[in-house]
Amino acid sequence: MIKDLVQSTLDVALHPDVLSYWQRKTGLDMDEYVVYSFGGDSKEDFADDTPLTKNASVTVRYYYRAEKLETPNKRKEIENRENLIETALENAGFAIPYGRFDAGDIDDIGYFVTVFECEFWRVV
Questions:
Q1: pLDDT tens, residue by residue, 21-31
Q2: Residues of the domain holding 98
Q3: Residues 64 and 76: beta-carbon distance below 8 Å
Q4: Which end of the chain has fewer surrounding CB within 10 Å, N or C?
């Protein structure tokens, strides 16, 4: 359920300009893409030993080629894309309690990454 929600949220916000993948990118060579991973779905609040709420954690990574940082206009495009991703996730019910952050070229592949650590709280 949560994976489907993340995928559909990102597809509606970004497709066809940016493709989104679960766990890793496959196939096509592209300037930008998103990879998301599911970190767990913990039971948080209980009453009479029955869970009342659950909290799913999802990490969304927005990858873009290093060349996109070379000019102010390209950097603005990156910022606009980051804003779009953040707004789409929040509108779908995800919280991003620590905000997004720059992670650099974490995979040493020539792509910089913006990371969104998300939570999705819901009543069971």
A1: 998 887 778 99
A2: 2-123
A3: no
A4: N
